[in-house]
Specification:
Helix content is 42%, strand content 17%. It is an alpha/beta fold. Strands 1, 2, 3, 4, 5, 6, 7, 8 and 9 form a 9-stranded mixed sheet that branches. Strand 1, helix 1 and strand 2 form a beta-alpha-beta unit. The longest helix is centred in the C-terminal third of the chain and has 22 residues. The protein is globular and about 60 Å long. The two termini are 39 Å apart. The relative contact order is 0.12. It holds the Pfam family Glycos_transf_2. Keywords: Glycosyltransferase, Transferase.
């Protein structure tokens, strides 16, 4: 079995070496490495080539594709997908890194369970600390879909090993031109999976280089991306399963899709939050996956108590993540 690892590259010269070394040193041998240069303006590609040269036994397994101009993350993933020939696909962002047994253990689970998708726990990594991010154990795709929609399971692209046939047979690709929320594509893949497997172990280190970046700054284009991708995902789920099976979970998904707007220093984002998916507001209390504090700030937003949201962000993101996690 061959695993294709797809790695988009753009402006990551500070992190690319650690990422690529973690990929080259995977214990599993039959890997196709597909690096996609999305017209990176820095020294990332030169550093990439230097690292690859230091692993001569892997060099023939490496392909470097290039965009003439920057097209964005979804387009880079799609370029990699179109080229990939592996039985399974794994996505890795070029500022993150993997434990060396990641691919071997995830593929072993896929073979043992005859799974279309294997997902695992992951690390939220800071400069000096890490948080272990545990995922729920789901036994079938519909349970996993419910968990992703209600927010108890993350639909990130990078902690999942996925059979390539799921992409090909269902013509699933990433939303080019709409980078924010492109991870929602994982929900579409789970909608077509027959069997899934969960590994209660973390392999992927998602690097948070600036803890205060948890407080979001959204451009109008970002907002359009998030809203458009959320609407597209909902339409896809309803096309595959009808409008009733996940009706409550879709409301939870709408709330989760707009929740990052409350983690902002910009009060205008609170106004946007109040304008999106208003029919979902009565479902805040029904979502058992929301913590009490998450429900609290959403209710504060409904009541237009924006000072509470700002105080919450100050305490959580500036103090806890900005000081305790660095």
């Amino acid at each position: 079995m061959t695993v294709s690892i797809i790695v988009p590259i753009y402006n990551v010269e500070k992190h690319i070496e650690k990422c690529v070394r973690s990929l080259m040193e995977q214990t599993y041998e039959d890997i196709q490495y597909v690096f996609v240069d999305d017209a990176s303006p820095d020294n990332s590609i030169a550093l990439l080539k230097e690292v690859i040269e230091s692993y001569p036994l892997r060099s023939k397994q490496v392909s470097l594709l290039a965009h003439e101009k920057n097209k964005g993350l979804p387009a880079a993933r799609n370029t990699g997908l179109a080229y990939a020939g592996g039985d399974y696909i794994y996505h890795c962002d070029s500022d993150d890194w993997l434990d060396t047994d990641c691919i071997e253990e995830m593929l072993s689970s896929a073979m043992h369970e005859n799974a279309d998708i294997v997902y695992s726990d992951w690390y939220l990594s800071f400069h000096k600390n890490e948080r272990y991010m545990r995922q729920p154990e789901c036994t079938d795709p519909k349970q996993a879909l419910s968990a992703m929609l209600d927010g108890s399971m993350k639909y990130n692209v990078w902690n999942k090993l996925i059979k390539r046939d799921l992409y090909v047979k269902n013509a699933i690709c990433f939303p080019e031109g709409r980078g924010m929320g492109e991870d929602m594509t994982m929900i579409k893949l789970f909608a077509h999976a027959q069997r899934i497997a969960y590994l209660s172990k973390a392999y992927y280190h998602y690097m948070q280089t600036n803890p205060t970046a948890f407080t979001k700054l959204f451009k109008d284009s970002h907002l359009n991306d998030i809203f458009g991708n959320a609407q597209d995902t909902i339409a896809y789920i309803e096309k595959v399963f009808g409008s009733e099976l996940f009706s409550n979970e879709i409301r939870f998904f709408q709330l989760n899709a707009k929740l990052p707007l409350l983690f902002s220093d910009d009060r205008a984002m609170f106004l946007v939050w109040r304008s999106w998916f208003t029919d979902a507001h009565p479902y805040i209390g029904m979502n058992l996956s929301f913590s009490k504090r998450t429900k609290f700030i959403q209710y504060a937003a409904i009541k237009k108590q924006d000072w509470i949201i700002r105080l919450y962000n100050l305490i959580l993101f500036r103090l806890i993540y900005g000081v305790l996690y660095r």
